[in-house]
């Protein structure tokens, strides 16, 4: 099952690909997440969700992957309540930066102002030229979770998405806290779709890459994670309640611009392409400095 939001002459609304049928909803995806927990509770398996989807206004838009891939996807969740990130969560990235593997997840926060959609322009700041790329697997929470075990964690997960934690490195390094390098307006691509856990398995290894103007800068696999999605969700839910629509970025593999000698940075006008196997790709152009 795949979830997304589209925008056309009828406005912005949620869509779902379920068993090769494309359904559209009269509402955006965020408000619809209330029914995710219900079909988990009542049916136990997202494959049996059709009845509840119909109850929430789903109508058939058409059939097949060709139709699905032709849709104008936008940011899947408009304004997540929480955007949480795990740093240094890939072994090869920690090694390239000269850090020991973390004993516990290195957690920091983003805010919804940083997010953009899968084809939106990245707003390049006039205050810095040290703009870096970070392909990351994103997790989208489907139901409220507090104190869940690793075994329970994936039951509350709506699915996986693609993100790029575009970072302002000189601002990130101003203090020991990374926050101010990670929260610039409209710099974090997110989308194009959310794929449910029954379709992809990051633990088995999903190929992930980031390219700039056609040149591959990062090429890795989700199998290299230090802390798995289930471990991250369980850990976070120990001290905070995760709510439907929350987004968790799970770290980046080796190949960030900061690791190059000499260092390499994104420039205005360049095109950043971010891909994760089985989910999709983001294609974002860097704006002129603003």
**What's the helical proportion of residues?**
10-25%
Beta-strand proportion:
25-35%
Gyration radius (Cα, Å) is 18 Å
CATH superfamily of the largest domain: Fumarylacetoacetase-like, C-terminal domain
* Number of structural units classed as domains: 2
Question: Mind explaining what this structure looks like?
Answer:
The protein folds into 2 domains: 2-74; 83-287, Alpha-Beta Complex (Fumarylacetoacetate hydrolase, domain 2), CATH 3.90.850. It contains 9 helices and 18 strands. It has helices at 29-32, 34-43, 50-55, 65-70, 91-96, 150-153, 169-172, 179-182, 229-239; strands spanning 2-8, 11-18, 21-24, 59-63, 73-74, 83-87, 106-110, 115-116, 131-132, 135-141, 157-164, 167-168, 188-195, 207-212, 215-221, 247-249, 271-276, 280-285. The strands form 3 sheets. Strands 1, 2, 3, 4, 5, 6, 7, 8, 10, 11, 13 and 16 form a 12-stranded mixed β-sheet that branches. Strands 15-14-17-18 form a 4-stranded antiparallel β-sheet, with no helix packed on it. The longest helix has 11 residues, at 229-239. It is globular, with a radius of gyration of 18 Å. The N and C termini lie far apart (39 Å).
Layout of secondary structure:
Layout: E1 2-8, E2 11-18, E3 21-24, H1 29-32, H2 34-43, H3 50-55, E4 59-63, H4 65-70, E5 73-74, E6 83-87, H5 91-96, E7 106-110, E8 115-116, E9 131-132, E10 135-141, H6 150-153, E11 157-164, E12 167-168, H7 169-172, H8 179-182, E13 188-195, E14 207-212, E15 215-221, H9 229-239, E16 247-249, E17 271-276, E18 280-285
Parallel strand pairs: 6-16, 8-13
Antiparallel strand pairs: 1-2, 1-5, 1-13, 2-3, 3-4, 6-7, 9-12, 10-11, 10-16, 11-13, 14-15, 14-17, 17-18
């Amino acid at each position: 099952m795949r979830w997304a939001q589209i925008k056309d002459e009828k406005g912005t609304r949620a869509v779902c690909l379920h068993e090769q049928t494309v359904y559209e909803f009269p509402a955006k995806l965020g408000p619809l997440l209330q029914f995710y927990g219900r079909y988990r509770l009542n049916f136990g398996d997202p494959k049996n969700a059709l009845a509840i989807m119909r109850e929430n206004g789903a109508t058939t838009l058409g059939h097949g992957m060709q139709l699905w891939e032709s849709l104008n996807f936008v940011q899947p969740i408009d304004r997540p309540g929480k955007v949480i990130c795990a740093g240094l969560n890939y072994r090869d990235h920690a090694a390239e930066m000269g850090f020991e593997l973390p004993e516990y997840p290195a957690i920091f926060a983003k805010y919804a102002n940083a997010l953009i959609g899968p084809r939106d322009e990245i707003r390049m700041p006039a205050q810095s030229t040290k703009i870096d790329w970070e392909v990351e697997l994103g997790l989208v929470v489907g139901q409220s979770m507090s104190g869940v075990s690793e075994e329970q964690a994936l039951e509350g997960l709506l699915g996986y998405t693609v993100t790029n934690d575009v970072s302002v490195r000189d601002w990130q390094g101003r203090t020991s806290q990374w926050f101010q390098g990670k929260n610039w307006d409209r710099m974090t691509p997110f989308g194009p779709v959310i794929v449910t856990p029954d379709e992809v398995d990051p633990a088995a290894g999903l190929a992930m890459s980031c390219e700039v103007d056609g040149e591959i800068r990062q090429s890795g696999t989700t199998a290299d994670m230090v802390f798995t999605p289930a471990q991250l969700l369980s850990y976070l839910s120990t001290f905070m309640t995760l709510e439907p629509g929350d987004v968790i970025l799970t770290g980046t593999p080796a190949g960030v611009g900061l690791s190059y000698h000499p260092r390499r940075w994104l420039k205005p006008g360049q095109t950043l392409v971010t891909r994760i196997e089985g989910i999709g790709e983001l294609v974002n152009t860097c704006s002129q400095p603003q």
